[in-house]
Amino acid sequence: MNDLSSFPSRTIWNDSEMLECVSIIPEVPDTATFAFRAPSGALFDFLPGQFLTLEVPVPGGPVHRTWTISSSPSRPRSLSITAKAQGASVATRWLLDNLKPGMRLKAIGPAGRFSHLHHESDKYLFISAGSGITPMMAMTTYMYDLGTEPDVVFVNCARRPSEIIFRERLEHMASRVPGIDLKWVIEQPDRFHPWTGLQGRMNQLILGLVAPDYLEREVFCCGPEPFMTAVREALAGLGFDMDRFHQESFSAPVGTELPLPEDVVPDEDTKAEIHFAASGSSTTCSETDTILAATRNAGLNIPSGCTFGVCGTCKIKKIAGEVHMVHNGGISEDDIADGYILACCSHAIGSVTIDV
Ligand code: FES
User: Fold this and answer.
1) What are the structural domains of the chain?
2) Ligand 1 center to residue 43 CA distance, Å?
3) Whether residue 186 has its Cβ less than 6 Å from ligand 1
4) CA-CA 20 to 30 A from 151: which of 35, 123, 171, 337?
5) What are φ and ψ of residue 110, in 5° steps?
6) Could you tell me if the CB of 341 is within 6 A of ligand 1?
7) Contact (CB, 8 A) for 170 and 154
8) pLDDT tens readout for residues 295-352
């Protein structure tokens, strides 16, 4: 994690404490940055690029949603997320319409492995679309605050210039540090505002224009799935070493189900038993049901976010029994060794007891 030992207060925030909203900054249409502090004064320790899951109290019951932390751990007294409401957004719409400074929300995390600190390199290419810019903002701010000279080509694709999030802040950083090379790519200009930069959709031609030396760079990509697919295919088609390509996504790949380990033949007809230690009840389910689904069917609640093993929101303690879990990085080896599992991607084998 980030080294906070030089700060006078060494208490590090953990998610047993609610977060208090301290400011809301409108960024572009339907998009705002929400800054939080720990009421206890604890500091935030995380890696730039990691995410946080918030419990959002929408009408009808709380929902859990995951956002990348857009602030940098080099500024550890507060933590921000930047949320953009899409058409059907419920949680982000609630934040935009209802969250006010002073209100407190439950948060889970930070978590995630999408950080340049896990893939150290001399040169980076950060390529994002829309609100996928948030982890790139955190990583770039972190490098800027460190005071060393980074070498980052920072590409963001937006529908229009007026929809580029963090534009002024990034241009300010780039004006002071020559190693931050900004490239905006828009789909169409704003009316009555001439645009002299790049225009079009991401493809091999634009990639070569924005970062001619892309073969030498560690690439981080975040945005809607079709955008990340386009970038991935463009790079693969150009002979890029895809081990150096990293992407972040909070939605399950379309049509993809988590594979079960090879030693398990999922069998709908094989029954499993789940015992809920805290509530003292039990349920029977099929081995092919996830523990999350079986728990819900039993009328109990485990908070969840992504539902495919990334965000870590559904982490619970397994007290006894055996499960098969195939996650996507949402739980650490230490937590697994301590008996924790992710309910959304764990299947009970035989009889299992969990702390719910
Ligand atoms: S809900 Fe995200 S890891 Fe289970």
Assistant:
1) 19-111 (2.40.30.10), 116-248 (3.40.50.80), 271-354 (3.10.20.30)
2) 25
3) no
4) 35
5) -70, 160
6) no
7) yes
8) 999 999 898 888 888 888 899 999 999 999 988 778 888 889 999 999 999 999 999 9
